[in-house]
C-alpha cells in the first residue's frame, strides 16, 4: 500500500514539476544553495508548476493535490516565499498562494472567491445573466436564499459585487478573464462556462 501511495505522489509531483520547469516563476532560479536532494528539487519544482496553474489555492488544497505532508508543504512553501517566487495572502481562515508579482490585491480577492463553491457559482451565473435575482441564483445553485445573501455580502465587502439595485458584479471583465483563464482548476461548470465565454475575454491582469 505504501509503495502505491508513494508512486502516486511521485507521479503527481513529476507532472507539476514538468510544468514548473517549462514555465518558471518570476523570481529566482530553481537551484538554491544547500538544496541538492533530488526529492526536494522535484517537490519544489512541482509547487512551481502548481501555483501558477492554480493561483489562489489554499494551503490544504495545495498539500492534498500534490500529496505532500503538512510539514513538507510548509517547508517548501516557506523556502519559495523567502526566494521571492511565491507570495501568500490571508483570506478569512485560509492562506492562499500565488506566483509572486503576478496579481494585484483585487485579483487575489477575486481568485479567492472563485475558489469557493457558492460565490463562484454566483459569479458565473451573474456573468451569464447580469439580471439574475437572489431567488434565481438560489434556485440555480441549489442553495438557500440566506446562503446567497451571505455570499453576496462577502462579495460586496471584497469589492466584487454591488447590491444597491439587485446584484451587479463590479468587475465583470476581470472576473470573466480569471474564470476563463483558470477554469480547469475550478470545476466542470467553470470549464463549460469557459468553453462558451473565452472569446469575450478582454481584461489582461
From TrEMBL:
<dbReference type="GO" id="GO:0003700">
    <property type="term" value="F:DNA-binding transcription factor activity"/>
</dbReference>
<dbReference type="Pfam" id="PF12802">
    <property type="entry name" value="MarR_2"/>
</dbReference>
<dbReference type="InterPro" id="IPR036390">
    <property type="entry name" value="WH_DNA-bd_sf"/>
</dbReference>
<dbReference type="InterPro" id="IPR056504">
    <property type="entry name" value="HTH_HVO_0163_N"/>
</dbReference>
<feature type="domain" description="HTH marR-type">
    <location>
        <begin position="123"/>
        <end position="165"/>
    </location>
</feature>
<feature type="domain" description="HVO-0163 N-terminal HTH">
    <location>
        <begin position="41"/>
        <end position="111"/>
    </location>
</feature>
<protein>
    <submittedName>
        <fullName>Uncharacterized protein</fullName>
    </submittedName>
</protein>
<dbReference type="InterPro" id="IPR000835">
    <property type="entry name" value="HTH_MarR-typ"/>
</dbReference>
<dbReference type="InterPro" id="IPR036388">
    <property type="entry name" value="WH-like_DNA-bd_sf"/>
</dbReference>
<dbReference type="Pfam" id="PF24266">
    <property type="entry name" value="HTH_HVO_0163_N"/>
</dbReference>
<dbReference type="InterPro" id="IPR011991">
    <property type="entry name" value="ArsR-like_HTH"/>
</dbReference>
Amino acid at each position: 500500500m505504501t509503495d502505491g501511495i508513494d508512486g502516486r505522489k511521485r507521479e503527481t509531483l513529476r507532472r507539476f514539476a514538468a510544468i514548473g520547469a517549462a514555465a518558471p516563476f518570476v523570481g529566482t532560479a530553481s537551484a538554491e544553495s544547500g538544496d541538492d536532494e533530488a526529492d526536494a528539487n522535484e517537490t519544489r519544482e512541482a509547487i512551481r508548476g502548481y501555483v501558477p496553474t492554480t493561483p489562489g489555492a489554499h494551503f490544504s488544497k495545495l498539500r492534498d493535490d500534490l500529496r505532500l505532508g503538512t510539514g513538507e508543504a510548509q517547508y517548501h512553501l516557506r523556502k519559495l516565499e523567502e526566494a521571492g517566487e511565491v507570495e501568500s495572502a490571508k483570506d478569512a481562515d485560509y492562506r492562499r498562494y500565488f506566483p509572486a508579482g503576478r496579481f494585484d490585491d483585487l485579483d487575489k480577492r477575486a481568485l479567492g472567491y472563485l475558489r469557493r463553491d457558492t460565490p463562484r457559482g454566483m459569479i458565473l451565473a451573474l456573468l451569464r445573466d447580469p439580471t439574475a435575482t437572489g431567488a434565481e441564483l438560489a434556485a440555480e445553485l441549489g442553495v438557500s436564499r440566506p446562503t446567497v445573501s451571505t455570499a453576496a455580502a462577502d462579495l460586496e465587502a471584497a469589492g466584487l459585487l454591488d447590491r444597491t439595485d439587485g446584484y451587479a458584479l463590479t468587475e465583470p471583465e476581470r472576473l470573466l478573464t480569471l474564470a476563463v483563464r483558470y477554469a480547469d482548476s475550478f470545476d466542470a461548470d467553470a470549464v463549460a462556462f469557459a468553453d462558451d465565454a473565452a472569446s469575450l475575454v478582454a481584461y489582461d491582469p
